[in-house]
């Protein structure tokens, strides 16, 4: 029996045009899942979902009552590249949308997460590799996402240059640590 699971990852925020964008999952980055096992995501794990054009939601904290966007309406766009599962979403002018955007701009959002059903996985002792998943949703996580690699940055063309320089340094340090 397959079960619905949730995992967390990195996003970067762009405030221009009320958009959030970044990565909901990073490939090949080990994560400790509650002390039970270490998990990685294989490149291409989301390709089946992306090919079928399934309706994937963007939520706040996995709460279906706090929808930010969805692929069916075109307000959520998903793609895979060599780094991971990239997303770009239009933030709605709702209480949840305004809250997430304000917290992300301040750097107070914990990161990104995703809900899925494992379709193909490899287990080796206390290690698990997700090879193919059915993606149901991605979520902005207000506190602690499952994956330590999670960061969230707020960027805008109108932010003063010292902040842009700090954000660029933080992103570069993250890249170097991977």
Automatic annotation (TrEMBL):
One GO molecular-function entry: peptidase activity
Keyword Secreted: no
InterPro entries named among the record's database cross-references: Peptidase_S78_dom, Prohead_protease
Protein name: HK97 family phage prohead protease
NCBIfam families: proheadase_HK97 (TIGR01543)
Residue ranges annotated for the Prohead serine protease domain, each copy included: 15-154
GO BP terms, alphabetized: proteolysis
This protein's UniProt keywords: Hydrolase, Protease, Viral release from host cell
């Amino acid at each position: 029996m397959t079960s619905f699971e949730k995992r967390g990852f990195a996003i970067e925020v762009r405030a221009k045009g009320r958009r959030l964008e970044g990565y909901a999952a990073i490939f090949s980055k080990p994560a400790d899942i509650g002390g039970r096992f270490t998990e990685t995501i294989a490149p291409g794990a989301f390709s089946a979902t992306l090919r079928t054009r399934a309706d994937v939601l963007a939520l706040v904290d996995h709460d279906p009552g706090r929808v930010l966007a969805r692929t069916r309406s075109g307000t959520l766009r998903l793609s895979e590249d060599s780094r991971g599962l990239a997303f770009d979403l239009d933030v709605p002018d709702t209480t949840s949308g305004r809250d997430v955007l304000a917290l992300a701009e301040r750097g107070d959002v914990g990161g990104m997460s995703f809900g899925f059903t494992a379709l193909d996985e490899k287990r080796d002792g206390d290690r698990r590799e997700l090879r193919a998943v059915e993606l149901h949703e991605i979520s902005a996580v207000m506190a602690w996402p499952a994956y330590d690699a999670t960061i969230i940055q707020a960027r805008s063309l109108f932010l003063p240059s010292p902040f842009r320089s700090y954000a660029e340094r933080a992103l570069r340090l993250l890249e170097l640590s991977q």
